[in-house]
């Protein structure tokens, strides 16, 4: 049994300002298996005008730029996320949100080891509390 697919308006979807849909297909090869090409497709909705495709492309690149700038901060070895299993999905989501909030406030510079900050704040809990309560996110 197949589900019927029908177009809906942006208002019906709860996105009244959406004007365009952008499809981005990305293809790549991995270093460990250069003969095998992988790909995935992402879909974006935007309030940008259809008359300016360059701006839409820049917006998509900007979205991934944010993701790429934060990727090195999410060092799974430092967070030890793989050592924790949660039976309740909300607990895992809350921990992920907490980690992301902390990453936004730690005064991080590219190339610095996250473990260094963990050690520093472990030795100085008052600084960790100050950072958590009063810091503003870094760009």
Briefly say what this structure is:
This protein is an alpha+beta fold and 139 residues long. It has helices spanning 53-71, 76-79, 89-105, 114-123, 125-134; strands spanning 20-30, 33-46. The chain is extended, with a radius of gyration of 21 Å.
How would you describe what is shown here?
This protein has 139 residues and is an alpha+beta fold. The protein is 43% helix and 18% strand. The chain contains 5 helices and 2 strands; from the N terminus they run ββααααα. A two-stranded antiparallel sheet has the order 1-2. The longest helix has 19 residues, at 53-71. The model has no long low-confidence stretch (mean pLDDT 78).
